[in-house]
Design a protein that fits this description.
By secondary structure, the chain is α+β, with helices and mostly antiparallel strands. It folds into 2 domains: 12-191, Transposase IS200-like (Alpha-Beta Plaits), CATH 3.30.70; 233-303. 48% of the residues lie in helices and 10% in strands. Helix 1 packs antiparallel against helix 2 (72-90), helix 12 packs across helix 14 (273-302) and helix 13 crosses helix 14. The N and C termini lie far apart (54 Å).
Length: 303
């Protein structure tokens, strides 16, 4: 079974979520939620991780985290193991509390951070638990709007609020209106590539140096290993202007350099799979001949 790719680097921003094992409830009482927040607060301080938003539901939770020190796996291991030990001891349970590994989506700050912070605090409304985000005390909404006791503050409010005004009260009011305007809007997570990366084409391209070393890790899903690659539409842009020779070179590039499947290439260029296979074999032979010719010329040049 393919595993999710863990992409870690200084300054990485993530949407994190995790569910209870077998979708079971992992927050049975308010005291469990308070305990989770205290453990989260301690983890953030110990690992130097920034939190821009959270929402604790019954069977799962959402976090928006930034890692200045490239340590998301360490931080999440500490959070999960500490809470699991607490939960099993308090409720006389054994076994896994969380369902597998935590899920993370690497996020482009400029395009999606604010949208995600709004999306997660509206979870209780979508679930029908409350009619206003301020009625739910287990999300970061009330911390952001300043209506919660100071001792419980665990999120970094400065960057978020700076997008809504320079005066604190005005910024909080504008933030509140921004959240309410998001009611009924589609999830920004629907734009995630391979359910792992959330950002525009430039953002994905910037990850190429990070993702290339994992290309040959077959246990990681192909869509994640090659998330930075251009789409087939981008590769074959203005294909009606191509000669067959140039088109065939692009077909070979799509297959050899970007690991697109022959069936997907065939579907895109509206050719039979057998034809695509023949083109790829022919282009590979040309490459071998060109390489041999260059090698021979280089040897002759020495003499």
């Amino acid at each position: 079974m393919a595993r999710q790719l863990r992409t870690e680097f200084p300054g990485a921003l993530y949407h994190i979520y995790s569910r209870g094992n077998n979708k079971k409830t992992i927050f049975l009482e308010d005291v469990d939620r308070y305990k989770f927040l205290r453990i989260l607060n301690k983890t953030l301080k110990e690992c130097n991780i920034l939190c821009y938003g959270y929402c604790i539901m019954g069977t799962h939770y959402h976090l928006i985290l930034e890692t200045p020190e490239s340590n998301i796996s360490r931080g999440m291991h500490l959070l999960h193991s500490t809470y699991a030990n607490y939960f099993n001891t308090k409720h006389d349970c054994v076994g896994h509390v969380f369902q597998g590994r935590f899920h993370s989506i690497l996020v482009q700050r400029e395009s999606y951070l604010l949208e995600l912070c709004r999306y997660i605090v509206l979870n209780p409304l979508r679930a029908g638990l409350v009619k206003h985000p301020g009625e739910y005390k287990w999300s970061s909404f009330n911390e952001m709007t300043g209506t919660i006791e100071q001792e419980h503050l665990i999120i970094s409010t400065q960057w978020i609020l700076s997008n809504f005004g320079t005066e604190p009260n005005e910024a909080r009011k504008n933030y509140l209106n921004f959240v309410l305007e998001g009611i009924g809007k589609p999830s920004p997570l629907s734009h995630a590539v391979a359910n792992t990366f959330l950002g525009n084409r430039e953002f994905l391209s910037s990850l190429e140096s990070i993702l290339k070393p994992v290309i040959n890790r077959k246990r990681i899903a192909r869509e994640q290993r090659y998330a930075y690659r251009p789409t087939l539409s981008e590769l074959f842009e203005r294909s009606e202007c191509f000669t067959k020779v140039f088109r065939n070179k692009i077909i070979f590039q799509a297959y050899s350099a970007y690991a697109y499947r022959q069936v997907d290439i065939a579907r895109h260029v509206k050719l039979h799979c057998v034809t695509i296979n023949k083109i790829i074999k022919a282009e590979r032979s040309k490459c071998v001949i060109e390489h041999s010719s260059l090698t021979l010329n280089a040897k002759n040049a020495k003499f």
